[in-house]
Each structure stands twice: as C-alpha cells, then as structure tokens.
Amino acid sequence: MEPAQIDRTPFADLDRIPPDLLTMLIAALETMGNHPEIRKVRGAAWAVLRPEPGQRLLDAGCGGGHVARELAAAVGPLGEVVALDSSTATLATARDHHDGSPVRYVTGDVSALDLADDSFDGVWCERVLQHVVLPDVAIDELIRVTRPGGRICLIDTDWRSLAFDGVPEHLAAVVAADMHSRFDGEQGIIGRTLRRRLVAAGLTDVTAVPVTCLFDSPQSAAVVLPMANPEVPADSWSATPDERGDWFAAVDAAGVRGEFLAVLTIWAVAGTVPAAGRHAGGPAAVSSVPAGAASAPAAVSVPDRDHGAQ
Ligand SMILES: C[S@@+](CC[C@H](N)C(=O)[O-])C[C@H]1O[C@@H](n2cnc3c(N)ncnc32)[C@H](O)[C@@H]1O
Asked: Does pLDDT of 60 surpass 90?
C-alpha cells in the first residue's frame, strides 16, 4: 500500500499515528456517522446505490464499520457485506462493534484489492479516495471486483466548497488554506471529480448528487469539520498558535451570538458497471441538474450509454 498525504491527513494510514490520536479519530468517525448532515449524505448515497436483499456488497475503506452494518441489514441473511480497510487498528474497532449481521472484515488496500473479479453486486466507498494517491487506480479496482450490472457508489468531499459566515473573513481564509494545503492534486476537490472519473471509466447510468452540509453552530461543525474541533491537536495545524487561538475565539463568539455558519459539499456518485467494454471512456451525453435545497439534494445524471447494462 502506498499511503497518500500521510503527514497531512492521518486517515491515509491510521496504523502509523499515535494511539491516542487513533482512538480520537475512530471515535470521531462513529460520532460523525450519527450527525444529521452525514446521515443526509448517506441517504443520498443509499438512494443511488440501491442495495437489495441477497446482494454481496463491498464497503471499501469501512472505518469503524457503521455503514457496513447498515448495508448488512439491507442485504439480509442471504447476502454478505465485506468491510475492507487498510488499517488493522480500525478494523479491530469495527469487529468490536460487530452486531452479528452478515459482515466479513478484511484488511486490504483499495488500490490493490485481493478480491476476485466480478465478485460483488455493489460497492460503497465513503470518504476514502481523498486519502489515496491515485484515485483512478482504486476506482479501476472497484470496477474490477464488481460484476457487470453491479453498482459502484463513491462518496467524497469537495474541501474547496468549505465556506464560513459569522467569523472574520481573514481567519476563515487561514483555516481554509490550512485544509487545502493537506491535499495534493485533485484529492482536495475529489468529490466534484467523481462523476467525471466514473464516466471516463465507462460506467453507465451515472448519477451524481451534491449534498450541501450545513453546520449552524460550532458544536455541530466540530463533529465533521476538523478545523472547528478544538480537540484536534494544536500541533497538527499549520496555522500559527496565535491564528488558531484567534480562530477558535471567533468561532466561539459567533456561536454565542447565534451567527456561526459553515457549509461543505459532499458528493454521492454512483454508476453501473457495463456488461462489456469497460473503460470505454470518451465523452458521454451528460445532463446536469443543479442541486436544489440543501435538504433535498437533486441528481445529476448521465444517460445510459450501454443499453445492455442495467
Ligand atoms: C475518513 S475515513 C472514512 C471511513 C468510513 N468510510 C466512514 O465513512 O466512516 C477513511 C478510511 O479509509 C481508510 N483508508 C485509507 N486509505 C485506504 C486504502 N488505500 N485502502 C483501504 N482503506 C483505506 C482509512 O483507514 C479510514 O478507515
């Protein structure tokens, strides 16, 4: 495995970070999974993946296994979910939370899967590709292990969409710059590139849903946004201690006034693996429909180019 951005995003290789930070991040993933805005993102992803009873699904980069267990409930006893992660420590936590549902936990690298071709009916891959060096290699692997007609659902963040209100603009610019500096290439905007990547890989029936997450208090934002979480260690900030102090003072004050606001777009994008001609590539006839209100995400669809595909 070749971790991306290890020094800047700890999720690139959770097994290499200090145990106390690991414990904090894994707990944060669990809390995050219960945040209403992340539930909204997952609801949009669920609708485009369309899991069904009896299916065999892969949760690639499963973290604490929260979604894997929900998928397992959907596929039922005749189905199976393989929950894969590169971090053995994270998988140990996932196993600790196991609820008896049909989930199999495996260690693996999403960019080099030790899984058979065409062996899954569908794939869920949430907030993983932003930490991977070559996301298209990982996407190719997800396509390889999915049977023709199966669905691949990618969920990822567009960190450039992050915006604040109620706090001084220059401080918001400092924390945004800090976040952007953590990513190489397109990883920081990976969410908005997912539809293009699936179209280029030859998937059909591609549906892309931009979900704008709204955080209207510092407490709500702290669950999902690391720069709003005062428990994130100060030494992981590239901003100066003074800037960090000014930032949190401004965030707290905005919260007291009831004026704090942050928004972030996370994309849920799914496509169908065609019966033949994988990686057909080339431009597709694309129809784009802008998102509606944040609470009711709209779909951006690519019409089916391969009429043999489901
Ligand atoms: C931000 S967490 C998201 C976890 C989970 N999908 C969720 O939404 O709660 C990113 C996860 O991807 C895993 N990960 C990072 N790079 C990976 C790779 N190359 N292969 C497999 N998993 C990877 C990390 O260990 C971590 O559990």
From this structure: yes
Write out the two tokens for 161. 């969409």
Q: From atom 1 of ligand 1, which residue's Cα is the shortest distance away?
A: 127
214 exposure class (CB count in 10 Å sphere: 0-12, 13-18, 19+): middle
Q: What is the pTM of this model?
A: 0.87
Q: List pocket residues of ligand 1, CB cut-off 6 Å.
A: 1, 11-12, 14, 29, 33, 61-63, 66, 85-87, 90, 109-111, 126-128, 131-132
Tokens matching residue 110: 């999403």
Query: What band does 278 get if pLDDT is binned at 50, 70 and 90?
Result: low
Q: Which CATH architecture has domain 10-157+186-210+266-278?
A: 3-Layer(aba) Sandwich (3.40)
Extended beta strands in 40-86, E state? 56-60, 80-85
**pLDDT tens column, 246-273:** 999 999 999 999 999 999 999 999 999 9
Residue of the CA atom closest to atom 26 of ligand 1: 63
Name the residue at shortest CA distance from atom 17 of ligand 1. Answer: 86
Q: Is the pLDDT of residue 308 over 70?
A: no
Could you read off the pLDDT of 87-127 as tens digits, one per residue? 999 999 999 999 999 999 999 999 999 999 999 999 999 99
What's the rounded Cα separation, in Å, for the pair 196 and 215? 28
Strands, E assignment, the chain? 56-60, 80-85, 103-107, 120-126, 146-165, 204-215, 261-272, 300-302
Burial class (CB in 10 A: 0-12, 13-18, 19+), 45: buried
Cα distance between residue 73 and residue 55, in whole Å: 11
